[in-house]
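pasting for the record
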Amino acid sequence: MSKKGKIILFVITVISVLLMSAFIIFFIDNSNNRCISVARASKMLALLESDKTTINSYSDGNDDRWYYKYMNYCQKNGLTEKDKIKKIYNRAYTYGDLRFYLNSKKISIKDVEEATDINPEKHKDREYISDADFKRVYDYFIVKSGNGNVHTEEITILGTNDTLEGVGKWQLHTNKGIYYAEGINMDKYVDTLIQVYVRDKEILSVSIKISDEIVYENVYFEKGEGNTITAYVGKTRRVFNVGSLDKNFSSCVGDIKMNKGVVTSVVLKQDTINGKVLMIDGDKVELENYGVLYLDDNFHVYTTYGIIEETDIENILVGYNITDFVIAGKKVCAAVISEPMVADNIRVMIMTTGFTSLFHERVSVKATGDYIVKYGDVEEVHKGTEIVDIYPESGYLSMGRISITTVNKEDKITILNVNKSYGNPSYRGDIEIALYDEGLVIINEVPIEEYLYAVVPSEMPVRFGVEALKVQAVCARSYAYKQLMNNSYGKYGAHVDDSVNFQVYNNVEEKDDSIRAVKETYGQVEAFNGKPITTYYYSTSCGHTSDMSVWGGDNSGTPYLTSKKVNNSGEKTDLSDEENFRKYINSVNENDYDYGFGYYRWKINISSDDLSISINENLYGRYCASPGNIFVKKNDTWVSEEVRNIGKLEEIRVVKRTSGGAISEIVLKGTDAEILVKNELNIRYLLCSRNNPITLLKGDTTTFYILPSSYCIFDKTENGYLITGGGYGHGIGMSQNAVSNMVQTGMTYDEILKFFYEGSEIINVYE
C-alpha cells in the first residue's frame, strides 16, 4: 500500500472510531436510554451471579479497564460468547446476546415473554435491545434468582468524584452513605431522587429517575452567608450556591429544597431544648423536665466539637445533658452534641433477688438519713427510717419517673425488696424508678468511682490484697467506661445492670481495701493505641487463655487479647488440635498461676439421660437468646431454625477449638435431631452438670448450673460421659485467681495488666 493509501486508511479509521464513540455516547448513555452496552450488561449479569470480591479475581493485572473482569467472568462462566472481550465491549447488547444468556441459564423464552411481554425470538440476532427492555427482563431475572442479592433502592446522590472533593474513583456519597458505581457516570444524577439496582453497595445501573424535586431535611448548617450555604447532608459536607440570603446564619439545623439541582428555598429550625437524657429508644427520647418526646422520621444526630460530622443515635448517652435537641412540628428533628462527654456517672439497672429479672413487681425504699421522693413537681421529704412503697398503680408513677435522693450525699438508699449476699443492699448516689409494660425498673445513678467501690469486692476476694484489687479496679473501670459508651440499656435509661451480664455490683458490702484500690487507681483505664479497651476477665484459667474466637469473633479489633500460657513463660502455644488439648487438660503444671485453685482442673461423671434432659431443657432458650449460633441438620445442611428437642443424646463431637483449647463449635447428635452449637456459653448451658457433682482439683465437690468452662474433653463411659476440664469462665483476658499468685511473685498491678492485655497501656480518662 502506498504512503497516501495508508494516510487515507488511517483517517478513515480515526473517523470510524469517532463515529463509533458518538454511537456509544448517543445510543448507550443518552437520556433516552436507547440501548445498553455489552460492558454494562455484563456487570449486571455478573453481579446477579456472584459478589464483587469473587468477580475481582477475574481481573487481568495488566488490564485496568473497569469492565474487563465482568466480561471475563461472564465468558468464563458461559453467560456470554467467548473470545470476544476485546472486540465487543463497546457495542450494544443484542437480542442474540440475550438468547445466548437464556440458553446458558436454561430459562424458557416463553416464561420470559409471559413475565415481561418481551419475546427475544421475534428480534434479529444483531438487533440491539433497549435499555428499558433489558431492565424489564433483568427484573425478571432478579425475581427468578430468589436470593435477594440484587435489589432496587431509592437514593439521592450527594456527590461524585467529579463534583465533590475527597470522593474516590467510582465512589458516590448518597443520603444512605457511601456507594460505588464502577463504570457508570453518575454526575447528572447529583441532587436527584433515583431508583438503582444495587448489590452490596455497588450500583449496577440506574433503574429510573424518580424526581428532580428533593428536600434535604434536618441538615446541619455550618454557615450561610452571601450567596453560599455550607451544610452537612448526612455525612457529606456540601457547599450550595443560592441567591442572595436575607440574613447570615450559622450552627443551626434546617431544610434545603431543590429542583433540578437548584436551591429553591431554605428553612431554618432554631427552637432547641436541653436536658439530661433519661431514656432513648427507637422513635422517642425522654428528657428531664420535658418528659417523652417523639423523633422525626428524618431525625439526625450531629457532633459539633472538633470536626463537625453526622453521627449515630447511639452516641446520645443517657444520664448526660451535653446534647441540644432541635424541635419542629412537635417532634425532635435533630440532636446536636456540642461538647465531649466526661464520663463521670454510670446508671445501673438493679435486678431482682437472684438476678432473675430486670423488672420488679414493687419497690420499697428507706435510707440511712433523710431522703426526698420527687414525682412531677411534687417533692416529699421522708425520714430515713420511713419506708416508701411504690407499686405500678401507685400515684407516684402517674407523672412519669420517680427520683429518690438523699438530703445528705453521704447517706445511702436501701432497697428492701431486693436481697443480696449480705441482705438488703444500700446504694450511693440517686435512685430512679420507671414503669414499663413488664414492671418497675430501678436505676441507680452513681459516680463511676463510687460504683467501683461496690464492684471490686463483688468481683474479687478482698483477701487477695490491695495490689490485686488495683488490677481489678483498673479492669472494672475500663469495662464500665466502654459499656457506658455502648448505651446497652438506653431504652430503660441505663448503661449496665448489676449482674454477671456486665459486672457484679453491690453483691458484697464495700471494704476498706477495695475502696483504697479504687482511689489509688483513680481514673485509670487500660488502653490500646490511646483508646480505652474492653478488659474482659473471668474467674480461673486452665493455665491457658483464649482470644475472641471463643465467641466466634474476629481478633483483628482486639490484638491485645491473645492466646497464651498463664505462667511466667507467657508462651504462645496452639491447643486447637484435639489430641494436643487432650494431653494438655489431662496434665497439670505447678508453674501455672492458677494452679492450686479448685477449678484449675475438674471432672464430672454424668449419664446420657441427664445430659439429654439438660440439652432439651435448655435448647429452646439458647436458640431464642442466640439464634445465629444454634443449627439443626436438614438434608446434610446446617440450618438456623427453632429446635426444642434432640431426643436422647447419642454422640458428642467437638468440631472446633480455639488456639487456647476452648470448644467454640460442637455437634450434639440425638435420636430425633442433630444440632451444631457455636459459642462457648451456649455449649456450657446445654452440657451443664445440673445435680451432678463437679469434682475439683483437690477432691472437693460442688455443683453449678452450667459447665465451668468449655475447656474440656468428653470420654464415653458405660452410662454416659466423663467430662474432664479446666478453668472457670470464658477464658478471655484476665484470670482473677491468677492475679492473686502473680502478686505473690512480686508483680505490680500495671505489670499484671500488661501480661493479660498485650501492648496495652494505662491512661487516665479524667485528664
